[in-house]
Amino acid sequence: MGTEERDSDLRLAALIDDGLRELIDLVSNSCITELQIERGGTKLYIKAAPEGGAARVGAETAVEAVRAAEVSEAAAPREVEGYHVKSPIVGTFYAASGPGADPFVQVGDYVQQGQTVGIVEAMKIMNEIESEVAGRVVEILVENGQAVEYGQTLMILDVSGS
Questions:
Q1: Which of 59, 62, 50, 51 is nearest to 17 (CA)?
Q2: Which residues does residue 155 pair with via DSSP β-bridges, in sequence order?
Q3: Above 60 in pLDDT, residue 82?
Q4: Helix, strand, coil percent content, the chain, rounded in steps of 5
Q5: What count of other Cβ atoms lies within 10 Å of the Cβ of residue 60?
């Protein structure tokens, strides 16, 4: 995780700690029906209570929001050493050339420089993602069919034995 993402996550965590009640009140006392904040690996989701059940459901919403934030914090990507293969574009990641096909790479596979390690589809164009280095796949951080952002790490390669 880069410094900007880490700072963003820390700011969101501080916002959750300091202003969770204010955010819930904002949703409860306005025409906003739901609020979603996402920074890095941290997500906060608050949904307004239905008419007539504001106090009770609002309290449950607060608990759900805190639990969701805690789960997201636990699921936030940790910093792993190695070469990070990143998405060059926003799109949908595909681990294989088609449905039912074997994945391009799996954890433990050795990847050659220039080898296709996945595909990112953007605007119906399939963009092959090639490894810029040789190394062993240590971790694959995205699932087949998952939306990815520009610069998001797709997988990590151990290049120490290359």
A1: 62
A2: 85, 140
A3: yes
A4: 30, 30, 40
A5: 11
| CA–CA distance, 108 with 142 (Å, rounded to integer) | 16
First to last CA, the chain: 24
The structural domains of the chain, with segments of one domain joined by +, span 3-75, 83-158
Q: Supply 19's token pair.
A: 């202003």
For tokens 């993402």, what's the residue? 5
pLDDT in tens, 54-78: 433 344 445 455 555 555 555 554 5
Which amino acid is located at 22 in the chain?
A: E
Q: Which CATH number fits domain 83-158: 2.40.50.100, 3.30.930.10, 3.30.300.30, 1.10.274.10?
A: 2.40.50.100
